[in-house]
């Protein structure tokens, strides 16, 4: 599968070339490609694109649900009628709300499957990535610098996540065989999941949270390449090796080569899914009439994926002061909703309905206060909440994720 999304809103916006490849062993990997999204219906100047990889486990239901509904939950959490800059600034918070909403809705189905989720939003040269689990997105810049835009939520490698899970009521340990021998990677018990964050997994415990790590960067006007893939790729290939293996190839062939290299190194031990997205300045589109396809492709290779030029590599976090540099706009990985949704929205008893920051359901202030302060909900174990309004169900979800109350306890009588 290959495709192209043309630039919109003027020549300063890049074009996208993208391709996908994969092999199935269990058939639990899914991907999403939506290159033609619009912030404002009918207005092509508000175009953005979305790419995602979902690696399911214990069945495919969670991965399928996330592919079909995660994006709409994120979009519903974004304020309407705002400009592009405000939209991009609101996007990290909306991604958190959308991931949590997807988890709540899927768990209502009563199914026990779970999934990783790596969702990438490309708007012009701005890239925003939200991820739970161990699927990964990397950025290969013009200078040959490879940057990891996600954090792996594996208990084996992530000490901070191990501490959070145990503090919230879970246990972390290896599989214990007869005779007391411990084998395999660190897992969370109950359930035996190797990940500390996912969507679904209702049989494991609410301390396995759907709150994503979010990173937003702005590429320089030279563009770059994104490689989004499931752990079937990353268990076989380091990030640098995957990026280097496919430099100089168009996106579709690059995705196929990354998969081929992973299979060559480790065999088909797991599902392997790879999506490659090239963010191409409009001046260097391969279809440009000024250059023949061969000459233009060669120029494109040298600009984006040629030999390393250390003098042109910019430092992440600073302003784009050099050719090929990347500016970090936002990064947050906390698993605490109060930190992720913010404290700037107060609960005021007005006649207007309050809207839950996660599920986007309106509730009358009087009703919400009676529900939380009356006899139908025991709020005494809950820490004071300084963030935006959460409805009863989302508040209970928040408390359960933090180990403050059982996710199955809904009333105090």
Automatic annotation (TrEMBL):
Leader sequence segment: none
Family the UniProt entry places it in: Belongs to the PP2C family.
Domain named PPM-type phosphatase: residues: 10-279
Any one Gene Ontology molecular-function term assigned to this protein's record: metal ion binding
Gene3D superfamilies documented for this protein: PPM-type phosphatase domain
SUPFAM superfamilies tied to this protein: PP2C-like (SSF81606)
Entry keyword Hydrolase: yes
Keyword Manganese belongs to the record: yes
Enzyme class per UniProt: hydrolase
Protein name, entry field: protein-serine/threonine phosphatase
PROSITE patterns hit by this protein: PPM_2
Keywords of this entry: Hydrolase, Magnesium, Manganese, Metal-binding, Protein phosphatase
CDD domains attached to this UniProt entry: PP2Cc
InterPro entries: PP2C, PPM-type-like_dom_sf, PPM-type_phosphatase-like_dom
Origin species: Oryza rufipogon (Brownbeard rice)
Required cofactor names: Mn(2+); Mg(2+)
Reaction(s) this enzyme catalyzes, per UniProt: O-phospho-L-threonyl-[protein] + H2O = L-threonyl-[protein] + phosphate; O-phospho-L-seryl-[protein] + H2O = L-seryl-[protein] + phosphate
Short name of one Pfam family: PP2C
EC code(s) of this entry: 3.1.3.16
Superkingdom classification of source: Eukaryota
